[in-house]
Write a structure and sequence with these properties.
The complex is a heterotrimer of chains A (about 325), B (about 325) and C (about 325).
Chain A lengths: L2 E3 H15 L3 E5 L15 H4 L4 E3 L4 H13 L3 E5 L10 H14 L11 E7 L14 H4 L6 E3 L4 H13 L3 E7 L6 E3 L13 E4 L4 E5 L2 H14 L5 E5 L2 E3 L3 H11 L2 E8 L4 H13 L8 E5 L8 H7 L3 H12 L1
Parallel strand pairs in A: 2-3, 2-4, 5-7, 6-7, 10-11, 10-13, 13-14
Antiparallel strand pairs in A: 1-8, 6-12, 9-11
Helix pairs in contact in A: 1-6, 7-11, 8-9
Chain B lengths: L1 E5 L8 H4 L7 H17 L5 E3 L6 H13 L6 E2 L9 H13 L3 E6 L1 H10 L5 E5 L12 H13 L8 E3 L2 E6 L2 E6 L2 E5 L15 E6 L9 H6 L11 E6 L5 E8 L2 E13 L4 E3 L5 E5 L2 E6 L5 E6 L4 E3 L1 H10 L8
Chain C lengths: L4 H26 L14 H8 L7 E3 L5 H6 L4 H9 L22 E2 L7 H16 L5 E6 L6 H12 L4 E7 L2 E2 L2 E2 L20 E5 L3 H16 L5 E6 L17 H8 L3 H11 L5 H24 L23
Parallel strand pairs in C: 1-2, 1-3, 3-4, 4-8, 7-8
Antiparallel strand pairs in C: 5-6
Helix pairs in contact in C: 1-2, 1-9, 1-10, 2-7, 4-10, 5-6
Classes of the chains: A alpha/beta (about 325), B alpha+beta (about 325), C alpha/beta (about 325).
Chain lengths: ~325, ~325, ~325
C-alpha cells in the first residue's frame, strides 16, 4: 500500500470532502495562499479559491462564522492555529455549538449543525507554554461536543472524512509532531467512525491506552519490553468523545493491568477518566491500580533540555508499565 | 452673554445609510466646544450659557479642559428640561433671547438651525456645520467662531460686528403659519415623518428654496444646478419635480449621490408672495427633514419672507475688527 | 418606503401583541407560576416589530434574552413560546431552553444567545451562508448597549465589513447594562459612531418611533440584500421593567421612567394612525381585545400542556449517537 504523511492525509481528506459537498469550506488564519502555519492546507487554495479563506487574527470571529454557517446547513472546517488558543473560543465550544441542539430541543433547521474545528496539538516544537499543550482535557466535560484524536495517517484521513460528513460539532486534534509521520493509506475511499478504539498492538500482560504521539512512544516501549518477555497491548481510542470503552474494557479484562499515557498534565487528564471508568466497570479484573503516565502539573518550559524532560518519553512509559506490574 | 447650542442628535441619521454621509460623533462636538471655550476663556468672557443635553456635551468639554489644559471654564447650563428632540434647540434659543445673548453659536445642520431660528428672535447666529449635507451652517473652525463671538460680546459699540438677515420660507396650513424653513421646503407624497430625512426622490413633487447654490448638495442644489439663487438676493425659487414636461438636470442630491431630476414649472418666488401647493396630500420636508403632514382638503401655502434669523458675517466681522485694531494691545 | 394601511395595522397589532404577551408573562412570574429568570421587553416593542417587518422567509434574526417579541413578530406560535416559558414539553424547545433560549429556527428566529457577545459573531456565519448561496437573504443581530462592549462586537463588525456580509447589527440602546448606566460603559457617546472604525454606515435613530425603525432598518436590509454589506443601527429606547423581573431598579429615577413612558411607542403610533385617519379608538380597542384572546389561549395552552418526560434529559445531545451518554 502507498504511504503518505499525516499532513497529506488531512489535505486529501479535505480535498475529497470539498469535491463531494460543495458547501464544505476551509478557513482560518493563514490557511489560504500561505498554506497554513504547518503547511497542511498547501495547494488547497489554488484548487478551491472561493472555499479556502484567509481570516484575520480573530478566533471568536472565526468561530462565529463557523457556528452561523453550520446552523445554516453548510459544513465549515475552520482551523485555529494552535490548540492552546481554544481557550479563547471556549464559549463557542462549551456554551454555544455543543448546547444549541439541546437548548432548542432538536428543532428542525438547527439540528444538523456540524463543523470540524481542526487544531494542531502537542509539544515538541520548542514553542513554550502557550503553543505546545495537548488541550483535550479542557474539552472532556462538554456534552454535545465530539473530540477526534488520531495518531496515524490512516486514522487521520478516515476520521476527518467521517467528521466532515457528520452533523455534530467536532474538535479535531492533530499532533504537530506527527504531521510528517508516514503510514499506509489506501487510494480508495474509506471512513473511520468515531467511537471505534483501535488496538494498535496486541498483547496479554498490560493494556496501555495512549493518544497521538504517546501511541508511537508506547509501541516503541512495547517493542523494547518484548525482549524481556512482556506482552504489551496498545489501545488508541481515536476519539475521546464519544469514547469506545468496550474495546478498552475487553483489553483490560484480558491483561488485568492498565496504564494510560497522555502528554497533558496529570491532574484531570483526559485519560484519567478512562482509568476511572475501568475501575468502576472492571474493578474485579484488575490486579493493580491504574497508572497514569502524564505530564507534570506545570506549564511547558521553553528550553530544549527542559521541554524534552517535561514531555513524557518511551522510558517514562516503560517505568509506568513496570509500576503497574510491581 | 454668549449662547451655545450643540445638537447631540445631528450627524447620525439615516443619511449615513442611504447616502455616503459621515458619522459625526458627539466626541467631535465636545472637541469643538472645548476649542470655543478656550477662546472665550482667553478673552476673559465668563458669561456663557449652553444648552444641556442627554449626552452631556458641555460637562464632557469642561471636564476635558480642566484635565488637559488646566482651564477652569466658567459656563452655565441653561435652566431647562430636555425632551431630547429638536424642541430643545428651539427652547434653548428662546431662553437665550430672554437672557439677552449677544450671539448664539450653533453646532448642527440645517435642521438644528431651523429649530434655533424659531426661538432666537434677533439674536445673531454663528452656525457651525457638523455634517456633510448642510447649506445654512458653514464649515468654520470652532476657534475662529469663538473669535467672532468675542467680537460680538466685547464690541459693545457695534463698530466691527457685522450681521446679515436671512430669508426664510413660511409654511401656512389653512392660512395659519405653522412652520418655517431656512433653505428649502420640499413637498413629498410620503405619509409619515418616520426617519425624517428625505431621500426618496420619487416622492418629491415640488420644491421651494430661499437660496440655490451650484456648489452645494441637497434639495436646494436641484435649483442651484440650473438656476442659482444667491443667499443675499431678494427672491427665492419654486420648482415642480418629477413631471416629464420640462427638462432634466443631474444634481448631487446627497453626499456621494448624483441623480437625474426631471423639472417641470420653474418660477421666481417674490418676497411676500405665497404659492399654493399643488400636491393633494403628503408631507412637507423642511430643510431636508419631513415635518408638516397635510391631508386632502388642507390648504397648504408656502411664502418667502425676509424676516429670517440674523447670522454673523464671521469673515467681515473679524476683518473689520482686525483693521480697527480690536485685537491689538499697545505697549 | 410605501406602507399600506394593512402594513400599518399589522405593525400596530405586533406591538400590542408583544406588550400584552410580556405583561402576561410579568403577571404569571409575579404569581410564582413561571420558573427561572424573566427579562421583559416592554417599552422596546417598536424596535422589535419595526425590525422584523423588513424580514422575509429565510432571513435570520438572533436577539437576546429580552426579545420574546422578536419570536412573536417572526410568526413563532405564541402558544409554544408561552409553553416554553412554563417549561412544558409543547414549548418551542420541548421545555429544555426556557425564556432565555426560546426560539423558532424554522422561522429564522434564533433565541439561543443569553450569553451576550457570541450572537454578534455568529450572525456572520448565517450571513456568510446567505452570501455563499447568493440567495439575497440577510442576517440580523439585535443586542443592547451593554453587549456592545464585548470583544465580539469588534470581531463581528470587522468580519462583517471585510467580508462584506449581509449582516445587520442593531443595538437596542436602552441606556443601561443591567444597573450600569451608559456613562460608565462607553466614553464614545454614540454607539453608532463606532461604525466608522469598520468603514460601514452607522445610524442612530429614535427606537420608539415605529415608522422610523421600519424605514431605517428597511434601508439597511435593502442595502445588505443588494450586496452593499453590513450596517450598524443604534435604536434609542428604554425598558420599562427592570433588567429582570424582581430587579428593584435602584439605579434609575421614577421621573426618568415616567419621561420614557410619555414616549410609549404604542401610544405614539396610535396618534399617527388616528391623525392619518387609518384607525380610530374603536379599532384599537378591537385589536386589544383580539390580542387578549390570543394571549389567553397561549396561557391556557401552556397550563394544559404536560411536563416533558424525564427521558428528555438524555436526548438531543448528538445528531449521531455513536456512544452512549453517561447517565
Amino acid at each position: 500500500m502507498r504511504e503518505i504523511t499525516v499532513a497529506e492525509a488531512i489535505r486529501e481528506a479535505l480535498s475529497e470532502e470539498m469535491d463531494r459537498n460543495p458547501e464544505v469550506f476551509v478557513f482560518g488564519e493563514d490557511v489560504g495562499l500561505f498554506g497554513g502555519c504547518f503547511g497542511v492546507t498547501a495547494g488547497l487554495y489554488q484548487k478551491y479559491p472561493d472555499r479556502v479563506l484567509d481570516t484575520m487574527i480573530a478566533e471568536t470571529g472565526i468561530m462565529g462564522i463557523t457556528l452561523g454557517a453550520a446552523y445554516s446547513g453548510m459544513k465549515p472546517v475552520p482551523e485555529i492555529m494552535f490548540s492552546d488558543f481554544i481557550t479563547v473560543v471556549m464559549d463557542y465550544l462549551a456554551n454555544q455549538s455543543s448546547k444549541n441542539r439541546y437548548m432548542t430541543g432538536m428543532q428542525e433547521g438547527g439540528k444538523d449543525a456540524g463543523f470540524v474545528l481542526r487544531v494542531p496539538n502537542g509539544s515538541g516544537t520548542r514553542a513554550a507554554a502557550q503553543h505546545s499543550q495537548c488541550m483535550e482535557q479542557y474539552l472532556m466535560p462538554i456534552a454535545g461536543l465530539k473530540i477526534a484524536i488520531p495518531s496515524t495517517p490512516y486514522d487521520t484521513k478516515g476520521l476527518l472524512k467521517y467528521a466532515i460528513r457528520g452533523n455534530d460539532p467536532v474538535v479535531f486534534l492533530e499532533h504537530k509532531m506527527l504531521y510528517g509521520l508516514k503510514g499506509p493509506v489506501p487510494e480508495e475511499e474509506y471512513l473511520v467512525p468515531f467511537c471505534s478504539a483501535d488496538v494498535k498492538r496486541e498483547g496479554k500482560d498490560v493494556t496501555v491506552v495512549a493518544t497521538q504521539a504517546m501511541v508511537h512512544k508506547s509501541l516503541a516501549a512495547a517493542k523494547r519490553l518484548e525482549a524481556e518477555g512482556l506482552s504489551i497491548e496498545v489501545v488508541d481510542p481515536r476519539s475521546l468523545k464519544p469514547l469506545d470503552m468496550k474495546t478498552i474494557l475487553n483489553s483490560v479484562k484480558k491483561t488485568k493491568h492498565i496504564v494510560v499515557a497522555n502528554e497533558a498534565p496529570k491532574t484531570h487528564n483526559a485519560l484519567a477518566e478512562i482509568a476511572l471508568r475501568v475501575v468502576e466497570e472492571a474493578f474485579d479484573y484488575l490486579e493493580a491500580p491504574p497508572v497514569r503516565v502524564c505530564g507534570p502539573d506545570t506549564p511547558i518550559p521553553f528550553s530544549p533540555v527542559l521541554e524534552d524532560t517535561w514531555t513524557r518519553s518511551e522510558d517514562d512509559i516503560i517505568a509506568g508499565i513496570r509500576e503497574v506490574l510491581k | 452673554m454668549i449662547g451655545i447650542i450643540a445638537n447631540p442628535a445631528s450627524g447620525k441619521d439615516i443619511r449615513r445609510l442611504v447616502a455616503q454621509g459621515t458619522v459625526f460623533d458627539n466626541m467631535e462636538k465636545v472637541n469643538i466646544i472645548q476649542r470655543i471655550l478656550v477662546v472665550l476663556h482667553n478673552a476673559g468672557i465668563k458669561d456663557i450659557y449652553m444648552m444641556p443635553d442627554s449626552f452631556r456635551i458641555l460637562e464632557s468639554a469642561v471636564f476635558a479642559l480642566a484635565r488637559n489644559l488646566r482651564i477652569d471654564a466658567e459656563v452655565s447650563e441653561i435652566d431647562m428640561i430636555c425632551e431630547n428632540n429638536q424642541n430643545d434647540s428651539a427652547k434653548a434659543a428662546e431662553l437665550l433671547l430672554e437672557l439677552g445673548a449677544n450671539c448664539i453659536i450653533t453646532l448642527g445642520g440645517d435642521g438644528t438651525n431651523r429649530a434655533v431660528a424659531k426661538g432666537c428672535g434677533d439674536v445673531p447666529l454663528i452656525p457651525l456645520s457638523t455634517g456633510t449635507n448642510n447649506v445654512f451652517p458653514k464649515v468654520i473652525e470652532g476657534t475662529v467662531a469663538g473669535m467672532a463671538a468675542v467680537v460680538a460680546e466685547l464690541d459693545t459699540e457695534r463698530a466691527f460686528f457685522r450681521t446679515r438677515r436671512c430669508k426664510r420660507l413660511c409654511v401656512y396650513k389653512n392660512y395659519e403659519l405653522v412652520d418655517m424653513a431656512l433653505v428649502d421646503a420640499a413637498v413629498t407624497k410620503d405619509r409619515f415623518i418616520g426617519a425624517r430625512a428625505l431621500w426618496d426622490l420619487d416622492a418629491i413633487t415640488e420644491i421651494f428654496v430661499t437660496m440655490a447654490r451650484a456648489d452645494s448638495i441637497g434639495m436646494s442644489a436641484i435649483a442651484g444646478y440650473f438656476h442659482p439663487v444667491p443667499e443675499n438676493g431678494p427672491t427665492g425659487l419654486y420648482i415642480e419635480i418629477g413631471k416629464r414636461c420640462g427638462f432634466s438636470v443631474r444634481v448631487p442630491i446627497a453626499p456621494g449621490m448624483v441623480e437625474e431630476i426631471s423639472v417641470g414649472e420653474v418660477r421666481e418666488l417674490l418676497p411676500g408672495e405665497r404659492i399654493k401647493i399643488a400636491t393633494p396630500e403628503g408631507i412637507i420636508a423642511l430643510d431636508g427633514e419631513r415635518e408638516v403632514p397635510f391631508r386632502k382638503g388642507d390648504v397648504m401655502e408656502i411664502g418667502l419672507g425676509h424676516d429670517g434669523p440674523f447670522v454673523v458675517e464671521v469673515e467681515q466681522t473679524l476683518t473689520s475688527a482686525a483693521r480697527g485694531g480690536f485685537f491689538v494691545k499697545r505697549f | 418606503m410605501k406602507l399600506t394601511d394593512n402594513d400599518l395595522i399589522g405593525l400596530y397589532r405586533d406591538m400590542v401583541y408583544i406588550r400584552q404577551f410580556e405583561t402576561r408573562v410579568q403577571e404569571l412570574f409575579a404569581a410564582g407560576v413561571l420558573p427561572g429568570f424573566i427579562h421583559l421587553g416592554i417599552g422596546q416593542e417598536a424596535c422589535m416589530a419595526g425590525t422584523c417587518f423588513n424580514l422575509v422567509d429565510g432571513d435570520i434574526i438572533g436577539a437576546t434574552h429580552r426579545e420574546h417579541g422578536v419570536l412573536l413578530c417572526r410568526g413563532v406560535d405564541g402558544k409554544a413560546i408561552m409553553a416554553e416559558l412554563y417549561g412544558k414539553v409543547t414549548g418551542t424547545c420541548k421545555g429544555k431552553g426556557g425564556s432565555m433560549h426560546a426560539c423558532g429556527l424554522k422561522q429564522g428566529a434564533l433565541g439561543n444567545n443569553a450569553i451576550l457577545g457570541p450572537a454578534q459573531t455568529i450572525v456572520n456565519g448565517f450571513a456568510y451562508a446567505h452570501k455563499f448561496r447568493k440567495n439575497g437573504k440577510v442576517a440580523v443581530t439585535m443586542f443592547g448597549d451593554g453587549a456592545s462592549n464585548r470583544g465580539e462586537f469588534h470581531e463581528g463588525l470587522n468580519f462583517a465589513s471585510i467580508w462584506n456580509l449581509p449582516s445587520i447589527y442593531i443595538i437596542n440602546n436602552n441606556g443601561y447594562a443591567i444597573s450600569v448606566p451608559k456613562s460608565k460603559q462607553q466614553k464614545v457617546e454614540d454607539l453608532s459612531a463606532r461604525a466608522a472604525g469598520y468603514g460601514i454606515p452607522g445610524v442612530q435613530i429614535d427606537g420608539n418611533d415605529i415608522i422610523t425603525v421600519v424605514e431605517t432598518v428597511g434601508e439597511a436590509v435593502k442595502r445588505a440584500r443588494e450586496g452593499g454589506g453590513p450596517s450598524l443601527i443604534e435604536l434609542k429606547t428604554y425598558r420599562w421593567r427592570g433588567h429582570f423581573e424582581g430587579d428593584p431598579t435602584p439605579y434609575r429615577t421614577a421621573e426618568e421612567l415616567e419621561s420614557w413612558k410619555k414616549k410609549d411607542p404604542i401610544a405614539r403610533f396610535e396618534k399617527v394612525l388616528a391623525d392619518q385617519g387609518i384607525a380610530k379608538q374603536k379599532d384599537f380597542d378591537g385589536i386589544a381585545a383580539e390580542v387578549k384572546t390570543k394571549v389567553d389561549e397561549c396561557q391556557k395552552f401552556a397550563e394544559d400542556s404536560p411536563w416533558p418526560p424525564l427521558s428528555e434529559i438524555y436526548t438531543d445531545i448528538y445528531y449521531h449517537e455513536e456512544g452512549s451518554v453517561q447517565q
